[in-house]
Specification:
With 97 residues, the chain is of the alpha+beta class. It is built from four helices and two strands; from the N terminus they run αααββα. It has a two-stranded antiparallel sheet. A hairpin with a 2-residue loop joins β1 and β2. α1 packs across α2 and α2 runs antiparallel to α4. The longest helix has 20 residues. The relative contact order is 0.14.
Length: 97
């Protein structure tokens, strides 16, 4: 499934953007892993997760203008984790590589 998502991103946004999207997803997974105790100790926000997950707190938006990253209005995610996610996004998408 992951490979199909990568191919779809490449077809939709081009190779460079697809690589950045994958780098961002990997970075988010790393952040969630680093704060696993925080997420494990929180109740899930849906019926299919056994505890809270980082993906429950944000939405990436892609359109012809590029990609944006926003936290959901109802998110009560810790400010430190928010900042790490925002910095990750900025470092990948706002810096020229």
């Amino acid at each position: 499934m992951e490979e199909m998502s990568e191919k779809l991103n490449e077809l939709s946004f081009g190779k460079e953007a697809s690589e950045k999207i994958e780098e961002f997803k990997e970075g988010l997974a790393k952040i969630e892993s680093e704060y696993s105790e925080y997420f494990t100790n929180r109740k899930p926000t849906n019926d299919f997760d056994k505890n809270d997950r980082l993906h429950n707190h944000f939405i990436p938006i892609t359109d012809k203008n590029g990609i944006a990253f926003n936290f959901l209005a109802e998110s009560d995610l810790d400010e430190t984790i928010r900042k790490e996610c925002e910095n990750l996004f900025a470092n990948i998408f706002n810096n020229q590589k």
